[in-house]
Design a protein that fits this description.
globular, 2 domains, two-stranded antiparallel sheet, disordered N terminus, alpha/beta, 13 strands, 311 residues, TIM Barrel, Alpha-Beta Plaits, nine-stranded mixed beta sheet, 32% helix
Length: 311
């Protein structure tokens, strides 16, 4: 199937947010897709990393009925404790995500991160906000995860929105290796382009991949006059050295289609989701102070870049 012919494409969506003011211009509806090639140590959406459905555990909702244990074909589910202290857990090495346990769990202790949806189903949801887009200059943003990890679906949704006069944005990490994903970036009306750092070895430690392709793609897209908003997570002790920040500001100042730089202070809001996936959140750092973020903002502005804190 060509990237130009994905009319029956289906994707795995893990969240849709209405009324966002931080994912591009105006009021927006943001569609989050599963699948990402990066493994950022500070990731606040770990449920968006894997490109498949995953079982979510909320142990506090478990009533100890054991229906999940009896139905699991792989004996991957365990119950610990009794009464009000009962807790459900999953051996992820044994679990195949068949979701039979979810079907019999009526308390919500076992749910699914992600839903298989067609382009039409997603479009029917986002178009309900079309009046807000028209009055605010907003539109639809596709993020994740990394939306180019599902290029057929993302491209089809972009085209369907654009055909209906809905402005489109793609929130990307920029680590795109093939023409299918790159075509998505070229054809979006706006790019929200994440930059995690300038130092290659530091970037590898923080994300698991090199930043060479990310920077190369950014330069190529900016050379096409593609409207771009840069998003920079500020994670103390990981990507916020003076050398890295100044190098990034100097690099971005040469890209004329960069509309703005958004500085995104590190936060811990997504840590609970690691436990729901049976994972441990390993990053041990604190959110940066407002005065410190303001000092970094000044550096970008010194290079002539419009800069704001937050999306």
């Amino acid at each position: 199937m060509s990237v130009d012919q994905p009319k029956d494409a289906r994707g795995i969506v893990f969240h849709i947010i209405h009324g966002s003011f931080v994912d591009g211009h105006g009021v927006r509806t943001t569609v989050f897709l599963k699948g990402c090639p990066l493994r950022c140590v500070w990731c606040c959406n770990p449920e968006g990393q894997a490109g498949y459905l995953e079982i979510k555990i909320t142990s506090g909702k478990c009533n100890g009925c054991e229906k999940c244990i009896r139905i699991c074909p792989n004996r991957a589910i365990l119950l610990n404790g009794k009464g009000e202290n009962v807790r459900v857990s999953i051996d992820r090495d044994l679990c195949t995500n068949c979701q039979e346990c979810v079907d019999v769990c009526f308390t919500g202790a076992l749910e699914v991160f992600g839903k298989n949806m067609s382009v039409g189903e997603v479009f029917n949801i986002v178009q309900q906000d079309q009046l807000y887009y028209q009055h605010s200059g907003g539109g639809v943003t596709i993020g994740g995860g990394e939306p180019t990890s599902q290029p057929f679906f993302t491209h089809a949704l972009l085209k369907k929105c654009q055909a209906s006069g809905i402005h489109t944005a793609v929130d990307t990490c920029g680590y795109v290796m093939d023409h299918k994903g790159y075509k998505v970036l070229k054809e979006a009306d706006l790019l929200l382009y994440d930059l995690k750092g300038m130092d290659p070895s530091e970037h590898m430690r923080n994300t698991g991949v090199s930043n060479e392709r990310i920077l190369d793609n950014l330069e190529r897209l900016a050379g096409m006059n593609k409207p771009i908003i840069i998003r920079v997570p500020i994670v103390p002790g990981h990507n916020d050295s003076a050398k890295s920040i100044k190098g990034m500001a100097e690099f971005l100042s040469k890209l004329k289609s960069v509309e703005r730089v958004d500085l995104l202070p590190y936060h811990k809001y997504g840590t609970i989701k690691y436990g729901q996936l049976g994972r441990i959140y390993k990053l041990n750092t604190q959110p940066p102070y407002g005065e410190y973020i303001s000092s970094l903002k000044t550096i970008f502005e010194h290079y002539g870049l419009e800069t704001q804190v937050g999306g």
